[in-house]
Amino acid sequence: MALKNINPTKTAAWSALTNHFNNVQNINIKDLYKDTDRQKDFSIQFDDLLVDFSKNRITKETINLLVDLAKDIDLKDAIEKQFTGETINVTEGRAVLHTALRSTSEEPVLIDGKDIKPKIQSTLRKIRSFSNKVISGKWKGYTGKSITDVVNIGIGGSDLGPDMVVESLQFYKNQLNTHFVSNVDGDHVSEVIKKLDPETTLFVIVSKTFTTQETISNAETIKNWFLKSATIFDIPKHFVAVSTNLEAVDSFGIDKKNVFPMWNWVGGRFSLWSAVGLSISLSVGFDNYKALLEGAEEMDIHFRNENFENNIPVILALLSVWYNNFYNAETEAVLPYSQYLKKLPDYLQQAIMESNGKGVDRNGDKIEYQTGTIVWGSTGTNMQHAFMQLVHQGTKLIPADFIGYKESLYGLEDHHKKLMANYYGQMDALAFGKTKEEVHLELKFSGDEDKINQLLPFKVFEGNRPSNAILFDKLTPKSLGKLIALYEHKIYTQGILWNIYSYDQFGVELGKELANKLLKNQ
Ligand code: F6P
Question: Which residues are named in the active-site annotation (predicted)?
Answer without folding.
Answer: 354 (proton donor), 385, 512
